[in-house]
Amino acid sequence: NHVFTTEHLALSMIAAGLSPWWLRPVELAWEDTGLNSFFRVEAVGRSGAVYEVGRNFMAPYDIFFSADISFPERLKQAGFTATDPAVYAIGRIVIWSNTIDASRLTLQDLADDSIRRIAIAQPSHAPYGLRAQEAMEAVGVWDAVQGKLVFGENIAHTAQMVESGAAEVGIIALSLARFPALAEHRHHLIDDALHAPLTQGYVVTTRGARKPAVMDFAAFMETDAAHAIMERYGFVMPGR
Asked: What's residue 99's pLDDT?
């Protein structure tokens, strides 16, 4: 967890199934609007885990960001949200490595004997992992790489596995590959026609709706300023 302190208006956000580091530039831009806010951003591994917390009336959050919009939609159906789920970005996936020039790799190359370990997020619960599986299935290498796969709890954990040497390459989010600590290593952008869209969404909870600053921040996420920041870090804006 990390806390960004300014002053008295409290916005508690949870980011599920994704790495929330890109929210910091959005928060800075929001602060430039002149409204003092106290941000608390908590990251959890799985969107489904947050859904279970919310379902049991235990989640003290104002805004829920998810790598899979279906989870905000499920919270809406369960009656725990004040707004309709909104798409804030479409994610992209890349092949990334800190020991190999991944820009020269293709998905087909992952079946080569020279690559012994490939990290992806767990497809059973992580949207980025499922899209990695779909892409490898589309090019016909999924069966061939089964013995090489190691699984991260989420996309950030997957990148950490490659960084630590537990895998030589990984399929991670483009937004992570553009993170300063990772961007010094090159990556290969995977054709998004090979997998279903990574439609990411957010929703304001019933708790958050009681705070005007929360609703203002949700509106800010729809502005060109927020969209420009998201695009800078590798996200695609809906309709663009």
From this structure: 96
